[in-house]
Design a protein that fits this description.
The protein has 11 helices and 14 strands. It is of the alpha/beta class and 334 residues long. It is globular and about 55 Å long. 48% of the residues are buried.
């Protein structure tokens, strides 16, 4: 198999590329490197600079590399930004997907994995979110992911493509330091950023109906997420053209924001009491996956825990942002 990974130079994409090449699959990456980093990719991965909106490039790339399957991760993904500029998100996330699927159908590619999100569910009031939980996204970002799923399934049925939609929950950690997430958009690096600037971690709301009053989330190690992609990609080989597999990718365990802050303090040695601000609009009190379908259908379960995520993320932060990390002193510094 030869897999095209769109957005493969990004944080998650580079981990997927590593998992696939490590398992003997051939990989080519398409990325405009607007948020990705070519240095994340190994020497055995071909990188093509470009956009999924460029149909001529896609046609040439699929043909020249003999692509037989696609993992589509390239997308805009900041919820707040999507509220401010929904037109950008619909154009980038759905326009690029439409063009990519047209090229896939024309080239006769028969496997397609779509990077979706738990944002498609909105704020369900359930103990565990299953794939049958009604989808009611509350942001343009979540809307584009749900509409993307509809489009992927419809195109798969029409053109005989086996498809999968992977609904990620909260991703953290790193398989190795150079692949770490050094942006400050996700909660673990956000905590690191504030701590290494001598500021207290910020918690948004502590009056939720949860054991400690803070939001409860399902966190998954990015290395486990990458392995899930490999399991799904191989699982599609045994499915008929036009069939779809939609799965949650999480651990099925809830961790509160305050509990996560405590783990970060232990790992970094920076024991600063978090400060609490007002709730953010749209935050669910609890969002924890049911991961039963992945286990039942593919025999896959997550292996790594929250401490693994924080320790590996901190090691990468200290390597890739040494000026920030060493501006403070803590026993957790490598």
């Amino acid at each position: 198999m030869t897999w095209l990974i769109t957005g493969g130079a990004g944080y998650i994409g580079a981990h997927v590329a590593k998992a696939m090449t490590g398992a003997g699959e051939r990989v080519v990456v398409l990325d405009d490197v607007s948020t990705g980093d070519a240095g994340r990719l190994g020497p055995d991965v071909a990188l093509v600079h470009g956009s999924t909106a460029d149909r001529a490039l896609l046609d040439r790339l699929l043909a020249e590399h003999g692509v037989t399957g696609v993992v589509h991760l390239a997308a805009k993904k900041q919820v707040g930004e999507s509220v401010e500029d929904p037109l950008l998100y619909y154009r980038e996330n759905l326009g690029g997907l439409t063009t990519l699927l047209e090229a896939v159908a024309a080239a006769g590619v028969r496997r397609f994995l779509f990077s979706s999100s738990a944002a498609v569910y909105g704020v369900p009031d359930v103990e565990r979110i299953t794939e049958e939980t009604p989808c009611a996204p509350i942001s343009p970002y979540g809307e584009t992911k749900l509409a993307g799923e509809w489009l992927v399934r419809a195109a798969g049925r029409a053109h005989g493509v086996s498809t999968a939609c992977l609904r990620y929950f909260n991703v953290a950690g790193a398989a190795e330091p150079r692949l770490s997430d050094t942006g400050v958009f996700n909660i673990v690096p956000m905590f690191f950023d504030r701590l290494t600037r001598g500021e207290a971690p910020r918690i948004f709301g502590d009056d939720y109906p949860t054991p400690d009053g803070t939001c409860v989330r399902d966190y998954i190690h990015v290395a486990d997420l990458a392995d899930a992609h490999l399991a799904v990609a191989r699982g599609l080989g045994g499915r008929k053209g036009g069939e779809d597999l939609t799965v949650n990718v999480g651990r099925g365990e809830g961790v509160s924001v305050r509990e996560l802050a405590s783990v970060v303090a232990e790992v970094t040695g920076l024991r600063t009491e978090p400060v609490t601000g007002p709730r953010r609009p749209g935050d669910a009190a609890r969002a924890v996956a049911s991961a039963d379908r992945m286990r039942r259908e593919l025999g896959w379960t997550a292996r790594l825990g929250v401490r693994d995520m924080v320790e590996s993320a901190w090691e990468g932060w200290c390597l890739l942002r040494p000026a920030d990390a060493h501006a403070v002193r803590g026993p957790g510094l490598p």
